[in-house]
Amino acid sequence: MSKYSSATTSPSGSPRAARHLRKATLVGGGLTGLFLLAACSPSAASSDGIASQNAAALSATRAGSVTGTITSSDPADPIAAGGVAAVLYDATADTQLYTAPVDGSGSYALTGVAPGTYTLFFSGGGQHADEWFDNLPTSAGAKPVVVSSGKAKSIPDVELLATPMAPTHPVGTGSISGAVFGVARPGEEDLGMLPDVEVRAFGSGELPYSTQTDQDGRFVLGGLPDGEYKLHFIPPADSFELVDEWYSDKPNEAYSQSVLVAGGRDSSVKWTDLRADPNHHLYDSIDTFSVKGDVRVGATVSGEVGKIVPAPYVVSYQWTRDDGKSLTAIGPDGRYTIAPDDLGHKIFWSYDVYTPGFVRLTQKIEVGTVVR
User: Fold this and answer.
1) 8-160: what fold?
2) At 112, phi and psi to the nearest 5?
3) 174-275, CATH topology level
4) DSSP state of 177
5) pLDDT tens-digit readout, 47-61
């Protein structure tokens, strides 16, 4: 194995993954081998080719080697020939120096290695996780590999974690389109049509489909198979204090309204507002709240809460009198038995409906003046 014709420095703080491996032939002297070309500088090899021949002239008596075997953590996903590579870096793990792909049995051999101290990196090629020797996710703390003059350095077997293939979307011909507007807090100027809002459509698959609004705040989310989708709108980081939103005007997926895509056609949804106040969402429907019972001494009156969609998180009640006195309710349904000292007073029934993310509902209803 020949020394690299162009050393490549990897970004500080990130694993120096040898993802850009290319086969090349060193011209002159009949030397052939594998070396790394930096993906960001494909012309680097041309100017350094002659210099690399001088470096490759290391005598066979001085050159060492590093050998070993790589296996997969999943027997059903074995290491494929050429799919994984072993890479030697300098001792600081900053510069790639030698590389070798594995063969069909998972074995590799880094040859023509100058005596010295190195760090060893295994590139999983996307099908397996990258790893630094010995069993580390980054170069920090990587175990040194010392190559002696004319000696073969044998590395213990390395097992790379098999990474499952990312699920893919089914592709259809339908789409969902709409627009997003930014609403500021009361007293502040609205943000107008919102660009760069991430729009996600959750269907029956594992992953959402996604797109972003354009400069006019509009979006078309295409490639959708027929089915029902729930839309999630996520504002960009620089959009002040806007909160995310689920269609239509709901704080979470459980309450959101589904959008139907059918016949491979476009489903246009109504305008979506993103707001700074997290508790601005409106209930889908609220039935009438009412009070039943005679307003006379000794009678029991009760307040009845109408149906609320979606169902509220907390509903509380209170009975009061026109002189400000709080009256004691009976039971969880808020019934009240009118007392003798209530005679001649007006009594009121108040309710408070609270659901996280929704506008709070409060109302005070006058029941009437107490008679005998």
Assistant:
1) Immunoglobulin-like (2.60.40)
2) 65, 30
3) Immunoglobulin-like (2.60.40)
4) E
5) 344 334 434 444 545
